[in-house]
Design brief:
839 residues, mainly beta, 4-stranded antiparallel sheet, 56 strands, elongated
Length: 839
């Protein structure tokens, strides 16, 4: 995604202009957590940005964009800790003064750098770049690539996870699947160590006494292979195996005094191994799997990167946490790779914070202006426990969270699947806000097993119904029923100090006031609305949309869908238009008409996400570019009025949309969507975005025929490859105004896009553009379209005779003059044969 990132200091909030597309969040790189400047600062990288934070205050001191693509390595210069090297996918290796955010030296390696480490003594960088799966040496002094390649005896480094240099820069270790490749940087000799399991990490002893490796089985193995005797090859190097971890070892690091080895993995526990005595001590309950442990230069602090995208700085003397730096937590980081975890994205009404699910049992509040996580809220209290065997446990997940319009109530849905038959253990919870602190919510009502099957989604009443009406919550589940929940006051007795004294109080609880379904049909969506001046509820089933009146819950209307399967509902602010998103596209219903019926509006099959903003009459959809039912990689924003796209963009390769929502930032309606890269992208509906290389095998979209409000909102960018699969791609869009020049015609015919106007408008635009017009007297002027639209053959023949007489006049002909014989050739030969016989 083309991102307009704020490169100013983080203390100033970045405003979102109309032309901005801004990505926030992101994952902290495991190779970038480093102490600098006498261990007073911590430097990390997220995406293409370098972030400098104070260890004492926890404030972000400096943030700057170092590259145009994601940073793959961040290396601190040991001779000058205020200077760092950054390598990136843009092919650049840069030296920065991190305090001033000034680039001192730039090296262009011409290909994406995937891994890198630097020998500061000889000024040589060992890099792996592009699709080359071998290691190359780059001279930092001459800025030239050195001859030769470093490669294993067999195969290549396709599975290499990292590079590690020894402290004296004599040895380079590369873990590659079940082997560790050793390279002597002085002699150029190579050797390989074979392990029974996949090697996950390596670390050199600071004094080069041995090489330590960790594997996927949880073992820590010391190889005494660095001495001259071991390198002679006369006998195999001595191995010492240590085992405590139940799962893969993710990190190994030594303290600067060489006394302790620190290891961490999925268990969320740091194990301190005394090198000489092999005694162990532990730092448990860190709350998430450990990705990396970094020791400070004086061994007084440890920086621990966790799977919840946070860095905790630990005091090495008392194991107390000095500081914590929290990023956006990826909910999928705590489950297996193939696990399907639903992601939601909503906004806190009072503070404007973005809210989404976090670690199991938690939701997180994220500040989009400061690009920082504010805090987390425990919906289901639990301690992190790693799995005990190869199978992952089924954690309690917060699958949905939603606020009422004023933020006074938070509704959460937590569920845990217990078997493949979709039987779910979970609860529907209602939380009431604390008046003093807007972020603090107190549990008010818990409904265990609110439905007999998994709850699909939750909807709340909003400004679309009367403001004086009570707050309502709609839940619908896979048991093919929906329920409407409301508040009611209940008297209860509370014992004081003396059991004989009873204090009678009233408290508000939530309960179900209505439950229904429709012929055992699956429920896909629902919304609260005004229909025929009544507060109403619309529920979308698989084959119909039913509208109930609130209060008495009588059926007020019905819209049949036919053979299409319903997915989402959307409503504009004036409540005169409702959109029904089906598996075949978008259909429009005029609610103020006497009979409810659907009209074709926009054909985009298999829309995966949808959100609407009623006040600005906008709706956003996410779908797959190839028309698949999974993997949303195209975001598009449309207007309710005409269905013309205000913004459309295809995501980068392997990037997918996981959640979509409209949010309000600086009193502007912004589209926010989360991605599988642990980012939230903010898009203004009027942002200028180009899209290319999207090949969508879907039918031709249908234009509703209403005039566009503004021609500038029409999309004239490319979707798809015009050379391949042209019969399946989305067809040409023509602007409402007539095309005049040949260049414009050629340009538009080479382009493909997303909306096809009505056939008559298309014909008018095409013929008025590509056919020269005849210069005739005003009283005899007739266009080719008028001739084709004549009611009878007699009228058509008279019109043609008039045009023939006008063209026969002895006036100088120009290129714009029009010969009627050319027009006759363009029409159907049979029609003019009939006209000739009549004449």
């Amino acid at each position: 995604i083309i991102q307009s990132l704020d490169q100013s200091d983080m203390s100033t909030s970045a405003s979102l202009n109309k032309s901005n597309v801004r990505a926030i969040g992101g994952a902290i790189s495991a190779e970038s957590v480093q102490f600098i400047d006498n261990d007073n600062y911590l430097v990390t990288s997220i995406g293409s940005n370098v972030i400098l934070s104070s260890v004492q205050s926890g404030e972000i001191v400096k943030k700057f964009q170092a590259h145009s693509e994601a940073i793959t390595e961040l290396i601190v210069d040991p001779k000058n800790q205020s200077q760092i090297y950054t390598a990136s996918g843009d092919g650049k290796l840069k030296l920065w003064d991190v305090k001033t955010a000034r680039c001192l030296v730039e090296h262009d390696l011409n290909e994406p750098i995937t891994k890198c480490t630097i020998d500061f003594h000889n000024q040589i960088a060992y890099v792996m770049k592009g699709k080359i799966v071998f290691i190359r040496k780059y001279n930092l002094k001459t800025k030239k690539m050195m001859d030769g390649q470093i490669k294993p005896s067999k195969g290549h480094f396709a599975d290499a996870l990292c590079f590690k240099l020894s402290n004296d820069y004599k040895w380079l270790a590369v873990p590659n699947h079940r082997t560790v490749f050793l390279y002597n940087t002085i002699s150029g000799k190579t050797s390989e160590l074979t392990n029974d399991h996949k090697v996950s990490t390596v670390a050199f002893h600071p004094e080069n006494k041995f090489l330590c490796i960790g594997d996927s089985y949880g073992r820590i193995i010391r190889y005494y292979c660095l001495s001259k005797q071991a390198q002679s090859g006369k006998k195999a190097p001595l191995q010492v195996v240590k085992l405590w971890h139940a799962h893969q070892v993710n990190s190994l690091s030594f303290t600067s005094d060489s006394a302790y080895l620190l290891s961490g993995g999925e268990e969320g526990v740091i194990v301190f191994w005394h090198v000489d005595t092999d005694d162990k001590s532990f730092l448990p309950r860190l709350g998430a799997p450990i990705q990396k442990v970094t020791c400070s230069s004086d061994s007084t602090k440890y920086a621990v990167l966790l799977a919840d995208n946070s860095v905790k700085v630990i005091n090495s003397f008392n194991y107390n946490m000095i500081q914590e730096f929290s990023g956006l937590t990826n909910p999928k980081a705590f489950a297996s790779k193939n696990a399907r975890i639903p992601i939601f994205l909503t906004q806190h009404p009072k503070s404007g914070m973005l809210v989404m699910n976090s670690a199991p049992g938690k939701i997180q509040f994220f500040n989009p202006k400061k690009n920082q996580k504010s805090h987390e809220m425990e919906v289901n209290q639990r301690n992190y426990i790693s799995r005990t065997d190869a199978a992952y446990p089924s954690p309690v997940l917060v699958e949905r969270a939603l606020f009422t319009s004023n933020g006074s109530t938070l509704i959460t849905v937590e569920q845990q699947a217990t078997d493949p038959h979709d039987f779910v253990l979970g609860a529907l919870k209602f939380w009431h806000a604390d008046e003093a602190t807007p972020f603090e919510y107190t549990l008010n009502t818990t409904v265990e097993q609110a439905h007999k099957a998994r709850i699909v989604d939750v909807r709340v009443s909003n400004s679309l119904i009367s403001s004086s009406y009570k707050d309502l919550v709609l839940t619908f589940a896979r048991d093919k029923t929906f329920k409407v929940w409301s508040q009611s006051e209940t008297k209860y007795e509370q014992y004081i100090s003396n059991p004989d004294e009873i204090n009678k109080k009233q408290k508000t609880f939530w309960n179900c006031e209505f439950m229904s379904g429709h012929r055992g049909r699956t429920i896909h969506d629902g919304l609260f609305m005004k229909y025929k001046s009544k507060n109403a509820l619309a529920v979308a089933f698989s084959d119909a949309i039913l509208i109930w009146g609130l209060g008495d819950y009588e059926v007020l209307g019905r819209i049949n869908l036919g053979q299409e399967n319903m997915k989402f509902l959307a409503l504009d602010g004036e409540q005169d238009t409702m959109l029904s998103i089906t598996n075949q596209g978008v259909k429009k219903s005029k609610l103020k008409e006497d009979s409810l019926r659907l009209r074709e509006f926009l054909q985009i099959p298999n829309i995966l996400f949808c959100s609407f903003e009623p006040e600005n009459k906008l709706f956003a959809v996410a779908f797959n570019a190839e028309g698949l039912e999974v993997g949303a990689n195209v975001i598009a924003i449309y207007s309710f009025a005409n269905g013309m796209p205000r913004f459309i963009r295809k995501l980068q390769r392997r990037e997918q949309i996981t959640a979509l929502s409209f949010v309000i930032i600086d009193e502007q309606a912004i589209v926010a969507y989360s991605t599988n890269n642990n980012e939230i992208v903010l898009v203004h509906p009027d942002a200028d975005g180009k899209i290319s290389d999207v090949n969508m095998e879907i039918s031709e979209p249908i234009f509703d025929g209403e005039d566009a409000e503004n021609g500038d909102h029409l999309m004239d960018h490319i979707i798809g490859d015009t050379e391949q699969n042209s019969a399946h791609n989305i067809n040409l869009i023509l602007r409402n105004h007539q095309l005049r020049t040949d260049d414009e015609i050629i340009k538009h015919f080479k382009m493909q896009s997303h909306i096809l106007p009505r056939l008559d408008r298309l014909c008018v635009s095409v013929f008025d553009s590509i056919l020269p017009q005849a210069k005739v007297e005003e009283k005899h002027e007739k266009s080719a379209t008028d001739v084709a639209a004549s009611q009878s053959q007699d009228e058509q023949m008279k019109d043609i005779e008039i045009l023939q007489e006008a063209s026969a006049k002895k006036t100088p002909r120009t290129e714009e003059d029009y010969d009627i014989s050319e027009l006759m050739k363009t029409f159907d030969h049979n029609i003019f044969s009939d006209l000739e016989e009549t004449k």
